[in-house]
Specification:
This protein folds into 2 domains: 2-63 and 368-430, Urease, subunit C, domain 1 (Roll); 65-321, Metal-dependent hydrolases (TIM Barrel, Alpha-Beta Barrel). 38% of the residues lie in helices and 24% in strands. The chain has 16 helices and 17 strands. The strands form 2 sheets. Strands 5, 6, 7, 8, 9, 10, 11, 12 and 13 form a 9-stranded parallel beta sheet that branches. The protein has an 8-stranded mixed beta sheet with strand order 3-2-1-4-14-15-16-17. It has helices at 41-47, 85-97, 103-119, 133-146, 169-183, 203-215, 229-238, 245-250, 269-278, 286-291, 299-305, 323-336, 345-352, 354-359, 387-394, 398-408, and strands at 2-11, 19-31, 34-40, 53-63, 65-71, 122-128, 150-153, 155-156, 189-195, 220-225, 259-263, 281-284, 308-311, 377-380, 414-419, 422-426, 429-430. Helix 3 (103-119) packs across helix 4, helix 12 packs across helix 16 and helix 15 (387-394) runs antiparallel to helix 16 (398-408). The protein has 433 residues and is α/β, with parallel strands linked by helices. It starts with a strand and ends with a strand. Bound molecules: zinc ion. Zinc ion (ZN) binds at residues 69, 71, 128, 224, 262, 314.
Length: 433
């Protein structure tokens, strides 16, 4: 199958080197779920004369978007105004997460969550799970049914949450192990350990995470770091003998290229240096950071230290699933922050595609339009009469068109989404799993 479209992607091996590559009348030839050829339409057509052609001549066809931090149980809490992190958790989010103890409710949440990822063009995601093993199994099962490439795992905490959400280190070990054995490595599912944050984790719980990472080196690790000043002070109080927040994880062997730390809004220099040295990744979640008043992400300090980051929607403190909107919030955060980075459209696209793929160790699999990669694609085609439609109809260059997409596109501008070459969403219709 050939998709004929205006193709746009970001190339380059770092944010500074991000450049746009585009074909106004381009084509992607998809075979067995992968990109098998691409380039100008006439060339691709000549090389594959018998392939069927689907015409997507308006809008833009982009690589699938990659979300490196989003919470499965939090869709329904989006929009709880007026609270900072710890009050928001206590008053709104943790009570809501206890509802996933009921399996039928969790199954509904899992379906809705994956539907929303897909219809927003998110073709890969590192997902923070539920505290309940059956609810977590429901998410994996739902992803398996659709062949959605999911990285996720049981959320764990053994203090300072609500009693219903608490586990013990022993139980966390057993439940993680059981989920790993049942799902990890099957049908494009990967397991990611997920202690909620050090404020909710004893040393014993963090230690079992370290043991599991040693036992299964191909697991991912995800947690929260340096999000909010009151949280950071509380962590320092709970762990008086650590050098800083990152050290609460570091001393259990939890740093490395398969580890993703959400937020890092208030890092110390040692933490940035260690994140860089260990190849650990940061999930920058700008809408969440603004929503909870957590602060303005120090992007330039991350770049200067060589600490790598990608973007996360952080639903439900984040206010949407759309990574296009999230990229615009990243842009605005840097514009507002003194000494912020001036991000180009290429840099924004790079962050939600290539950087996400790199953060999830998928550099050769996703994040770009190249032969051999998975055909994960999102077609942005605005509804007639919308502001985005008005701007794109007069826009000539890829840079400006893409800037308009980041500024204006929301989920209604997503016309189709393909994962592994299969169209899972076509405007208004999700493919039945
Ligand atoms: Zn989070």
């Amino acid at each position: 199958m050939i998709l004929r479209a205006r193709l746009v992607q970001a190339t380059g091996s770092s944010l500074d080197e991000a450049r746009l590559e585009s074909w106004n009348d381009g084509a992607v030839y998809i075979k067995r779920g992968k990109i098998a050829d691409l380039g100008p339409f006439t060339d691709v057509r000549t090389r594959h004369p018998s392939a069927t052609v689907e015409e997507l001549r308006s809008g833009l066809l982009l690589p699938g978007l990659i979300d490196v931090h989003v919470h499965y149980p939090q869709t329904s809490v989006i929009g709880a105004l007026g609270l900072d992190l710890l009050d928001w958790l206590e008053q709104v989010t943790l009570p809501s997460e206890t509802r996933l103890a009921e399996v039928a409710y969790a199954v509904g949440e899992a379906r809705r969550f994956l539907n929303l990822l897909i219809r927003n063009g998110t073709t890969r995601a590192l997902v923070f799970g539920s505290h309940y093993a059956p609810a977590q199994a429901a998410l994996f099962t739902e992803a398996e049914t659709r062949n959605y490439p999911l990285i996720s795992g049981l959320a764990t905490g053994d203090r300072n949450l609500r009693p219903e959400l608490h586990t013990t280190p022993e139980r966390a070990y057993v439940e993680n192990l059981s989920l790993i054995e049942r799902f990890h490595g099957k049908n494009d599912i990967r397991y990611a350990l997920a202690p909620r944050f050090s404020l909710a984790a004893s040393d014993a719980l963090l230690e079992i995470n370290g043991s599991l990472m040693k036992e299964f080196p191909e697991l991912f690790f995800q947690t929260h770091l340096n999000e909010n000043r009151r949280e950071i002070a509380a962590v320092a109080h709970l762990f008086p003998d650590t050098r800083d927040y990152l050290d609460t994880y570091e001393r259990h062997g939890l740093l490395g290229s398969r580890s993703v730390f959400a937020h890092n809004v208030h890092p110390r220099p040692r933490e940035l240096a260690r994140l860089a040295e260990t190849g650990s990744r940061v999930a920058h979640c700008p809408s969440s950071n603004a929503f909870l008043g957590s602060g303005l992400f120090p992007m330039r300090a991350h770049l200067a230290a060589g600490a790598r980051f990608a973007l996360g929607s952080d639903v439900g403190a984040g206010t949407r699933f759309s990574l296009l909107g999230e990229a615009m919030d990243a842009y605005k955060t840097q514009r507002v922050r003194e000494g912020g980075v001036n991000l180009s459209a290429a840099a924004l696209l790079w962050l939600v595609t290539r950087a996400g793929a790199a953060a999830l160790n998928l550099e050769d699999v996703a994040g770009g339009l190249e032969v051999g990669r998975s055909a994960d694609l999102v077609w942005i085609d605005p509804l007639p009469g919308t502001v985005l439609d008005a701007v794109l109809s007069r826009s000539e260059g890829a840079e400006h068109s893409l800037g308009a997409v980041f500024s204006l596109a929301r989920e209604d501008a997503v016309a189709s989404v393909w994962i592994h070459g299969r169209r899972l969403y076509e405007r208004g219709k999700l493919q039945a799993p």
